[in-house]
Amino acid sequence: MLYYLLYELLQPHFSPLNVFRYITVRTALASLTALFLSMVLGPWVVRKLREMQIGQYIREEGPKNHHAKAGTPTMGGVLIVISTVVPTLLWADLANVYVLLALLSTVGFAAIGFVDDYNKVVRKRNLGLSGRSKFSLQMLVGLVVGVFLLVLTTFGVYSTQLIVPFFKKFHPDLVINALVDHPYLWPLGYLPFLLFVALVMVGSSNAVNLTDGLDGLAIGCTVIAAGALTMVTYLSSHARFASYLDIQFIPGVGELTIFCGALVGAALGFLWYNAHPAEVFMGDVGSLALGGAIGVVAVIIKQEILLFFVGGIFVIEALSVILQVASFRLTGKRIFRMAPLHHHFELSGWSESKIIVRFWIVALVFALFALTTLKLR
């Protein structure tokens, strides 16, 4: 909105406003706007959640020190969503389909998380949405995004080609397509492509959700992952940089950088109130939205595989749960004291603050490693 006002309408009459045509300027402004909104609205959101008695439910089987957190306001993720969406609407070009897809995904996953939180906290249903219902709704949002991206391929402005870190010319979708000459059997064509997009987004969303178990853990890791994706998105939109790094150049995707910048600012602002000891928890409305946002950005810029490194902590947390469940069902024994992994370290005697900071450090290492793979190809 401000982009149209300051650049499209007023810039022809006042040339200094030409600065707002630059993506880097608007990304910085979106980040600052998101940070400002979350910092200003934070106390009001926390107060309202307390007044509505929307408090966190603590599992009996969890670490005993968590019981002191019972009743802490939750569903604070609405603050993250508002602080991400509003700056994007203000500073991005809303005619850009990639921005609209990112907003659609974030709001869609947030809505699923909101319903889940509402059932758990307000209606006092401890399990919230059933696993099947939640997964189905998440898949639906992912499939909608996949359909829009497939439509863009028909106009020649988007490609389903996979980019593999460390390899310049290796594209598994092209290799398999050469062996199986049928569009519906492509690993990244039509229906399989739709499923791939949906699974990446659902996996990312649930991985962040599983990581959200300690004060500031998930949101701190999100700041790092979103920051890395901001850089990669900008590089993917710049023809010269994309050619130099041999990554896919996607015209128009630069506007998505503004969305990523807003996500970073919103996450930083929420961290102010979510840092240990937390004044508010994000709930599923926040964790599902954050994971969905990260996932859709990775899909759009064709860095789905790189997402495993960008969000390395989220992947490790999700894998710890998968391994724990698989081991218990197959052998009757547990690999970890408790899953996700951060609870294992809690029960091993690590303090909550130490776990959080060390996980942030590992997340930063993963993000830096992901950025180095852009050149090591």
How would you explain this protein's 3D organization?
This protein is an all-alpha fold. The protein is built from 15 helices and no strands. The longest helix is centred in the N-terminal third of the chain and has 29 residues, at 23-51. The protein starts with a helix and ends in a 5-residue tail after the last helix.
As residue ranges, the low-confidence spans are: 183-188
Strand content: under 5%
Largest sheet: none
The helix/strand series, from N terminus to C terminus, equals HHHHHHHHHHHHHHH
Q: Helix share of residues?
A: 55-70%
State Rg: 21 Å
Number of helical runs?
15
Roughly how many Å apart are the termini?
40 Å
Shape call: globular
Which structural class matches the secondary elements? mainly alpha
Mean pLDDT: 87
Give the total of beta strands. 0
Topology:
Layout: H1 2-9, H2 23-51, H3 77-91, H4 97-122, H5 131-154, H6 172-179, H7 191-211, H8 217-237, H9 239-245, H10 256-274, H11 283-300, H12 307-310, H13 312-331, H14 341-347, H15 352-372
Task: Summarize, please.
The protein is mainly α.
Descriptive tags:
single chain; 377 residues; mainly alpha
